[in-house]
């Protein structure tokens, strides 16, 4: 697999944004791909972000705590989770216990895919306002009962609870969580996700026509390309299970175009 074969439009666009279009950094990324074809696009972007990062102070110069928290936050905003982890680890003796660092540490662990570590940090913080965050991580780790216990009363929390209930086969509970989430009148992203969860619940009940209807409601309110792709994919699944393969194929094709 060559560097050219790997350089899809989405990766090239992301690299251009990260590097500011500077040819030298593009060349270094191409060299990475050529030498290490096994690494993922995410790793390529991480390396590019590290190269494009502001010059780090010498190891002998220790950041102040405030500087470290600002630099770590900036790294996270740039999508460079490992750089953020390095900054926090170099400056704070126990970042998981430090009020200036612990929330940033949890964010960095989550962004780096270290969900167990992120959840452990959040458990140590014990913030009630972070219940839904803890629930989301628990659900990603397959701990659905824990997610149900932690999920907050906001729309995102209800969505996490509904998805967890579906994973446990509790369709009635899932639908109740969706209705409670919709009653909060959430913004479009969560509203779309809630309707799609209602579509999933209808499929679990063996009601593909109802699932199609709910997925369409979600699609009507999805404006962001990623949300439209998700809604179209769920619509296609409902149409396929409802015995309409032609409509399902069209929905899947539109989902690919929107992604």
If you had to describe this structure to a student in words, what would you say it looks like?
There is one protein chain. The chain is an all-alpha fold. It contains 16 helices and no strands. It has helices at 3-6, 9-19, 23-35, 41-52, 65-77, 81-91, 102-111, 115-125, 131-140, 144-150, 155-167, 171-183, 188-204, 208-220, 225-241, 245-258. Helix 13 (188-204) runs parallel beside helix 15 (225-241). The longest helix is centred in the C-terminal third of the chain and has 17 residues, at 188-204. It starts with a helix and ends with a helix. Mean pLDDT is 86; it is low at 1-7.
In short:
The chain is about 75% helix and about 0% strand. By secondary structure, it is mostly helical.
> Could you say which overall geometry the principal axes of the C-alpha atoms support?
globular
- Tell me the fraction of residues in β-strands, as a range: under 5%
SSE order, as H and E? HHHHHHHHHHHHHHHH
Class based on secondary structure composition and strand pairing? mainly alpha
Fold topology:
Layout: H1 3-6, H2 9-19, H3 23-35, H4 41-52, H5 65-77, H6 81-91, H7 102-111, H8 115-125, H9 131-140, H10 144-150, H11 155-167, H12 171-183, H13 188-204, H14 208-220, H15 225-241, H16 245-258
């Amino acid at each position: 697999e060559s560097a050219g074969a790997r350089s899809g439009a989405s990766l090239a666009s992301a690299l251009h944004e990260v590097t500011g279009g500077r040819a030298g950094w593009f060349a270094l990324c191409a060299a990475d791909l050529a030498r290490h074809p096994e690494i993922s696009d995410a790793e390529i972007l991480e390396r590019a972000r590290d190269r494009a990062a502001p010059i780090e102070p010498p190891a002998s110069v220790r950041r102040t705590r405030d500087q470290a928290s600002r630099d770590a936050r900036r790294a996270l905003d740039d999508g460079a989770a490992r750089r953020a982890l390095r900054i926090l680890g170099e400056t704070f003796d126990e970042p998981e216990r430090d009020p200036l660092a612990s929330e940033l540490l949890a964010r960095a662990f989550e962004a780096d895919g270290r969900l167990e570590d992120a959840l452990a940090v959040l458990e140590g913080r014990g913030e009630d306002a972070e219940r839904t965050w803890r629930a989301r991580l628990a659900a990603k780790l397959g701990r659905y009962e824990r997610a149900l216990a932690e999920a907050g009363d906001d729309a995102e929390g209800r969505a996490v609870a509904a998805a967890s209930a579906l994973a446990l086969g509790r369709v009635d509970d899932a639908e109740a969580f969706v209705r409670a989430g919709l009653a909060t009148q959430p913004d479009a992203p969560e509203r779309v996700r809630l309707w799609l969860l209602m579509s999933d619940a209808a499929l679990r009940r063996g009601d593909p026509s109802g699932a199609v209807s709910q997925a369409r409601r979600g699609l009507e309110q999805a404006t962001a390309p990623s949300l439209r792709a998700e809604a179209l994919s769920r619509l296609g699944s409902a149409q396929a299970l409802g015995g309409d393969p032609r409509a399902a194929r069209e929905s899947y094709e539109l989902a690919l175009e929107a992604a």
